[in-house]
Every structure is written in C-alpha cells, then in structure tokens.
Amino acid sequence: MSDVLERLARVLEARKNADPEKSYVASLHAKGLNKILEKVGEECTETLLAAKDAERSGESRDLVYETADLWFHSLVMLSHLGLGPDDVLAELDRRFDLSGLEEKASRTR
Ligand SMILES: N=c1c2ncn([C@@H]3O[C@H](COP(=O)(O)OP(=O)(O)OP(=O)(O)O)[C@@H](O)[C@H]3O)c2ncn1[C@@H]1O[C@H](COP(=O)(O)O)[C@@H](O)[C@H]1O
C-alpha cells in the first residue's frame, strides 16, 4: 500500500502555520472547524451523488475524484483537531484483528 496518507499528513501539519493567502489548507484552518466541517459535509453529499451516477452509468471516474475530495477534507478535519490518518488506520487495524479474519485466511492457505 502506498505511503501517500503519511506524506499528505506531513504536508497538512506544515500548512497549519502557512499563509492562508497562499495555501488552501491554511485558509481552511484559519476559517476554523465549522468551515472544515461544512466542506466535509459538501464532499460527502457529492460522493453520494457520484456513487448513484456510477451505478447508473457504469463510469466510476467521478466517484473516485469525489471520494478523494472527501478523504482529503476528512484528513484536514483530523489535523485541525490534532489527529491524523494513523489514528484511524490503528482503529481499522484493531477491528480487523478483532474479527480474526487474518487468522481464518491463513488457516485456509
Ligand atoms: N489533495 C488536495 C486537495 N483535494 C482537493 N483540494 C481542494 O479542495 C477544494 C475542493 O472544494 P470545492 O470542489 O468545493 O472547490 P471550491 O469551490 O474552490 O471550494 P470552496 O471555495 O467552497 O472552499 C478545491 O479548492 C481543491 O483544490 C485540495 N487541496 C490540496 N490538496 C493537497 O494538499 C496539499 C496542500 O495544499 P495547499 O494548502 O493548497 O498548499 C497539496 O499539495 C495537495 O497535496
């Protein structure tokens, strides 16, 4: 799996102290949590609409694009609150371990 989340998280962290006139991420931090949540909500709605379109048309490019926007703005939200992708990945990892799926898969190999 790519390390893009880690690299992006480092950039987002650095943008907390950047000039809001020069950086989109810094401008979101400067506007505050409500603006960031508004963007997460917008991108969520756009993702749902793109998923319905993808089902109808069989074309998934817009869905991938909107999902990237949603993930990106979710990462900005986490960063604003002192969290990062590692926190979410650790939670997913914990749930995966709990499910025992990995162990079951290795038994059938
Ligand atoms: N991955 C992204 C990324 N994805 C989406 N966006 C921006 O998110 C916005 C999407 O919101 P909309 O589609 O609603 O566009 P908009 O109407 O311009 O937005 P608003 O005026 O409503 O806020 C656009 O301005 C996109 O440019 C991103 N902006 C930045 N990044 C990454 O963040 C890094 C830092 O960005 P800067 O802070 O701009 O340097 C970059 O190097 C990129 O890697």
TrEMBL record:
Reactions performed catalytically: 1-(5-phospho-beta-D-ribosyl)-ATP + H2O = 1-(5-phospho-beta-D-ribosyl)-5'-AMP + diphosphate + H(+)
E.C. code: 3.6.1.31
Pfam family, one: PRA-PH
UniProt keyword Cytoplasm, yes or no: yes
Annotated GO CC locations: cytoplasm
Pathway: Amino-acid biosynthesis; L-histidine biosynthesis; L-histidine from 5-phospho-alpha-D-ribose 1-diphosphate: step 2/9
Subcellular location: Cytoplasm
UniProt GO MF annotations: ATP binding; phosphoribosyl-ATP diphosphatase activity
Keywords: Amino-acid biosynthesis, ATP-binding, Cytoplasm, Histidine biosynthesis, Hydrolase, Nucleotide-binding
InterPro entries: HisE (IPR008179), PRib-ATP_PPHydrolase-like (IPR021130)
Biological process according to GO: L-histidine biosynthetic process
Principal localisation: cytoplasm
HAMAP family in alphabetical order: HisE
Database matches in NCBIfam families: histidine_hisI (TIGR03188), PRK00400.1-3 (NF001611)
Family classification: Belongs to the PRA-PH family.
Protein name: Phosphoribosyl-ATP pyrophosphatase
Gene: hisE
